[in-house]
Every structure is written in C-alpha cells, then in structure tokens.
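During the second year of the project, the team shifted from modelling isolated chains to modelling whole assemblies. The rationale, set out in the original proposal, was that interfaces cannot be judged from single-chain predictions alone. As a representative example for this report, we include one of the complexes processed in the last quarter. Its constituent sequences, exactly as entered into the pipeline, are reproduced here:
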Amino acid sequence: MSGVGIIMLVHTAFERAEQVARHWNAAGCPVVIHVDEAVSRKAFASFKTKLSDLTDIRFSSRHRCEWGSWGIVAATQEASELMLGRFPEVRHVYLASGSCLPLRPVEELIDYLAERPNTDFIESATTADVPWTVGGLDEERFTLRFPFSWKRHRILFDGYVALQRRLRFSRKMPNGLTPHMGSQWWCLTRQTLSGILEDPDRKLYDRYFKRVWIPDESYFQTLARQRSQKIESRSLTLSKFDFQGKPHIFYDDHLQLLRRSDCFVARKIWPHANRLYEVFLAAKDSPASRTEPNPGKIDRIFAKAVDRRTRGRPGLYMQSRFPNHGWENGTTSGQYSVLQGFADLFEAFEPWFAKATGARVHGHLFAPDKAHYAGAQGVINGALSDSASVRDYNPRAFLTSLIWNTRGERQCFQFGPADNQDLTWTMAGDPNAQISVISGAWAVPLFRSNKNFGELRAEAAELQKIESEFLNVLRSPHSKARIRIWTMADFIENPMEHLQTILDEIGFKSLRRLTEAPKMNDLTGFGQFLQNLKNQGMHPYLMGDFPVVGSPVGLQHPTPKPYLVKK
Amino acid sequence: MSDHSALVKPDDILCFTTMRNEKIRLPYFLKYYRDQGVDHFFIVDNDSGDGSLEYLMEQPDVSVWHTNKSYKRARFGVDWLNWLQMKYAHGHWALVVDPDEFLIYPFCDTRPIRALTDWLDASSIKSFSAMLLDMYPKGRIDAQPYREGQNPLEITSWFDAGNYMINKNKTFGNLWIQGGPRARSFFKDKPEKAPALNKIPLVKWDRKYTYVSSTHMLLPRGLNLVYDEWGGEKASGVLLHTKFLDTFTQKAAEELERRQHYSASVEYRAYAESLKDNPDLWCKWSEKYINWRQLEILGLMSKGNWA
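Output from the structure prediction step:
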C-alpha cells in the first residue's frame, strides 16, 4: 500500500467514478468515497456494490453537497477523518472528484509526493490577490453571512447580501485568521490535515465557515496556513474555470494538450470522453524526463476562451455578438481612411493614392447610385454587393462588414456631401477612422461641369449645407476619429505637405520613392466662378478665400511642382 | 402514423421536422443527425406524394405524423411542431430543423451534440442560436443533379461570408438577420423583404415555451437573448441551408402554385423571376465551405467560452 490516499467526491457519472477509483486502487492507493446525499439510495447502493470486490475502499457518510455551501467541506472533513483513521500508512491525502482523471501513471504521483514528504500542495492566496470572484464577492465572502442557496434561491441570496451591505453588517474572522482562497482540489500531508481536523478551536472555525460563501475554496486554504510546515501554493489538479466560475470541461480532442501538460490529475472530464479515459487509464510508461506539471498551453487556450466570451472580437457584429451602443470595444475591426474633396481637386486621385499608400482605395462608397468599389467591382470581399438600396438599408452593417471582411488590408474611400450621410456620427466617433476633409472642394466639379448656372447655384447651396453639417459633427466633442480639415484655399497652398501628413499617418513604407505628385485640376477661373455664385446671392465660404482674377494663391502654371516635401 | 415515442429515454436529444416531398433528402438528413447523436426524430409529413411517408415509417427512431391540412393555416408548420414539442419534448434538448438544414456547432467534428447540450446545461444556457447560412453551387443551380443519400454540400459548397445585416427586434428581443446570397441576388432592390436568417433551433424545451415564427424567435423572450450585448461573444452555430440544389427550381414553381408560404410567397415569386434568367448565385468573392473553424474565423459563429 502506498502513502497516498485519495478522497473522491462523487455525485454523478458513477461508471467513470468507478473506473477511476479502481485505477487509484490498483496502484495501491486507499480510496475514501463520498457520494452526494442528493443521489438516490438505489443508485448509491448499486455503485457501492460494484466496488465491493476491492479492499481499501471506504464510503464516508453522506452530506448534501450544494455548490457554494458548507456540505462539501463537511463531506471532506468526514472523509479525511475516515482516511486518516483507517489507513495509518497514508502520508498525503489527495482530494479529487468523480470527474477527475489521472493523466500520469499513479506511481509517478506517489514518487513525486514521497520526495516531498512535508509539502502541502494547496492553492492559497489572500482575497486581495485573486481575480476569480463570482458575483462581485471577494472580501464579503468572509464578512457577510450566506444562509441562502445561490442556485435555488437567488433572489433571497441577493436580497440578503444587499440588506447586510445596507446595514453595514460585518463579521470578524475568528482568532484573527487571514482569509485565503484557492482551488478546492488540494493534497495535504497527514500532519497538516490532522492538525486542522483536531484543532481545539475547530468548532469555532466550523461555525464561522458555515456561513461563508463557497467555503470549500477557503476553509482548508485558510486553515492550512496555520498548520503547514511548507505550502506550495498550487493545485496538483489541473482545473480551469470560466468567467462564471464554472469549471472548463475536457473532451477527446484535448488529448494531446492534456498529455503534454504533464499534470498529474485533470478535471473536469466529460463522462463521455471515451478516448481520454481509455488512453490515460491505460498509460503505464511515460517519458523519463517528465517532472513538473506544465499546463501553460492549456492555460492560454482557456484564457482565450474567457476573453472571447467577455470581450469578443472588436468590430464584429454577428448572431451571438451584438453589443449595445458604447460597448463595442471598437466600432470597426481596423483602421480606414475617409477622404473628402481629394478626388474633386485632383485628377485620377484614387490610383495615385493607392500607389502611395499600398492600401485599397475605393471611390465614393456611399454614392447615391451604388458603392463605387476599387477596380469598379460589382461585389467585393465577403460578397458585399455594390447595391445602393442594400447598403442604405443598413449603412452601419455595410461599413462594419466592409472593414471586417478586409481585415489585414487598409481601406480608404472617398466621401462627399452628395453621398449618404447616415454614418457621419458613426465614423466621427470611431477611433479607427482617419478623416481628412478639403472643405469646399465639391465646388470644383461644379465649376468644371457644363450645367446651367441656376442648377449649379442650387446644388452648391445644398452641398455646402451638408458639408457644413458634417464638419460640425467632426468638430463635436464626441468625435474620436483622427480628423484633419483644410479649406481648399489652405490646402492648395501647400498640397504635398498636407498629403504627406496623411500618408505618414497611414504609415505605409513604400520601397519606391514617390516620384510624382497627383495632378491638380486646372483652377483658372475658379475665383470668378465663386464670385458668380456670390453675385447670385449664394455665399460659398467653405473653400476659403480665392482671388477673383488670376490663379489661386501659391499655384503657378503649369500645375504644382512634381516633388514631395520631405521631412 | 407511426409513433415510436415510447422508446424515448429521459435525456434523449430530439429532432423535430416538418416536410413535404423530401424523400430524396431524407436518407442523408437522418444519417447526418444520427451521426451527431440525435436519438429520436419527430416528423410531420405534410401530404407528401413521393414515398417520404412510407420511408419514414420504416425507421425505428422516427415517429411520423401525417397531415393534409394547410401549411399556411398552421402558421407555416409552427403550430404542428409546437404541439408535438409540448407533448413530447418537455425536459429534453430539442432541435427543430428542416430537411435541408444541417447544424454546425463549435467542435462538431470532434464532439457529439451531447457534449454541446451537456455544456449548455452546465452553463445554465437554455437556447442555442445557429443562423441560417445559404449554401449554393458554383454555376447554374440546376447544373449538378442531387442523388439520394449524397451529401448536399458536395454540390452546394459555397456561401457568402460577410454581407449580413442585423437589427434588433424590440418586441421579442431577438436579432433579425438578413443578407447572404438571397439578399444579394433576389432582393437587391427591396432588401427589407429579404428572408430572416436568425434561428434558434436548439432549445432545452419546456412545455411552457413556444416558437413564434418558424424557429426565428420564441417565447418567453429570454430565450431569444442568444447574443451578448456587452461586447463578448456567446457560443453559437450555423445551419447550413442546402436549399439551392437542382430540386429547387421545380420546388419553387410548385410552391408558387400552392401559395402556402410566408408573405403570400413573395420569396418564391422573387426566386422564380430571378432564376429564369440567371440561376447562378456564385460570385468571385464566394467562400468555399471547409469546416466549422473556418466559419468561426469568418465571424459567422463563435465558440464563446466553450473550449
């Protein structure tokens, strides 16, 4: 018989529990089993009968083990007393559950513990230092009283907590103990465990912990600190919890992960994970070099799962993630540029900008006729169509889908006062948006068009009004985008410098140096055009000041010099 | 007609279906869900004339009911299934799918559906969402004939990855999802009429529950809260919708005649019109189906905190 005794707390999946109990027993470990009192007498009797051929198996008297309640501790205490009393050669007691599965040969665990005869393996940390609290209760687990079941009487539970808070009710720890918490699955030495169980003040402690919330995570964890010669504050049982404090479950597809973890025991195993039970209960040999458990990779996988559940993927809207306004954790999934006025001012601006940035540069995505995708495509990534009616049915879904679908590739698009304006607040409030506006540039196509002046005047007035509203949105205190606004007059004074600022922010490092500037439309007579609008009673102001005669300031013919201002 | 419901054990996973003239699809459908671990099927046969009923009556794990009443009057079959579920599904996990819908959930290639329902139970989750993902072939819908027993995904292996639109339904608290190839091709001028794609097909049933409109939403409202509102992702799956096989063209014409479908069959009228000239739903940006992980990466479904 070995010096390691196993206590198993069982409440379901009896066939698996039986298998595991036999496995422990075959390696020479005495086993004490506690079966939840909620289990029917019939099921209990049949379970007991099935194990009756084994010696060194005992059943301790049954308690009702409800999650978060004292019953689990009481069951553990009694099982421990039985173990220590009946099996005097036991030096370490290992607390396990019916859904725990030994991953390494039991002999290795026995040897491991034999080499550390005075070490207690019990995760035990002060309340201030642990992140795993459910329902916002950490300190208060100890200072309030919890007579009601969290699972069955949640309203009473919450109500009583609220009442105690209001009354500023607070209990003191007996004998000035410092509360510690940790995994309920421990492995204690006979000395420590018997010390706790035979403590002259045990009655006092028990009375106190009976009203503590989830005492199975604090009773032994706190009291072991009083008794132990040497505490290793970690559990030998690999057991991961999700964000609601429920244990993660292991399945057949975790086989390789579990194998490489080098942990002694894992929980919880899905009872139907046939392959895990087959493989691990059959394992006899093991790589010689294995020593310390190393659950790093499993930790990462489960940490990621919790992160996905609590924070999700930024910029994703889908059937099971539809954040309330303000809780998106990122309106969109990546950075993008919105360019207003550039395509009006420059000829063939889009191909030039695409070359300069390496990004995908679209035309007016929100144009009234359709979404003008780069390369004049009718459909783009994600099978997003260019139909204006589909886009306008849910413009926000259109934009967020576009950015999501093209993850890894920066999107830039033209925007203007003639486009659908539904998303101005969305984009202005999106830190992923880089919005650059040359205000008043919408007048250039009008100036170059061949329309009747009456029409032009009405259109100019309308566009100016819309653009000015957009600028108000951009200048509001709610906007979080990176925003640059120039009047057209300001911009053309030094166009390359301003373009360079935008390019630098996008941060694309071209291997080839930019050798050409975009070609600006001929603006001769633009000043006169604006004056004509003024003469008609319209007041164009967003473009800044242009002289009536001659070329605009800073612009000499022929068009601007083709080199970049370097920094 | 053939009631084997006495064989149902207390924790069996049940599947509820209504269908009409789907004989050709049934063998693969039953095999797919048997392999996933469904224990018993409850099927309402709406007056099939193609031998479906006879075929189903031979199956030991299928209980069949036959009706020749109006599908429309029965609110598109919901009433029949609600009645069956009230009677037989109480306390069970119940999956409600059509014969052309195939459930994909996280880890479905390595874990049976019971792993999912056990996890949902342990997490106190009562309903599981799986949006409808319309699958289609490359080329004309009628180009490749479907053989009985064949996996329809061999033909309809393409889908739209990222053109879905979501609105919240304030009355029932569910999400209303539209988009996909049908919105792109058949409803591009009237997207508001595009069919709903949100579905909650897997529910730990209680006789007090009821589906309101197909499996799009339920009562009580809490069951519709299958999405997280604070930035996180809940676990969800996908129903691969393999409607667009060569059998579809004929079915669309037939259904148009019967006028038994939703909104005076506006959907089927749109199909019939579009299918006349251009029965190809495939486009350059269509995505070819590989597995659930692909759908997860694309953001169509989520593992949530199941790992």
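The radius of gyration of chain B is 18 Å. Chain B has a mean pLDDT of 89.
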